[in-house]
Amino acid sequence: MQNIRKIAVLTSGGDAPGMNPCIRAVVRTAIFNNKQVIGVRQGYQGLIDNDMYDMHTRSVSNILAQGGTILKTARCMPFKTDEGQDIAYRNLKEREVDALVVIGGDGTFTGALRFSKRFPDIAVIGVPGTIDNDLYGSDYTLGFDTACNTVIEAIDKIRDTADSHDRLFFIEVMGRDSGCIALRTGIAGGAEAIMLPETETALDDLIRDLESSPNKSSSIVIVAEGDHHGGAYDIAKIVKDRIRSYHTKVTILGHLQRGGSPSSFDRILGSRMGYAAVNALLRGETQKMVGLRGNHIETTSLEEALTNHEFKLEDDLMEMIKILSI
Ligand code: ADP
Question: Are 286 and 125 in contact (CB under 8 A)?
Answer without folding.
Answer: yes
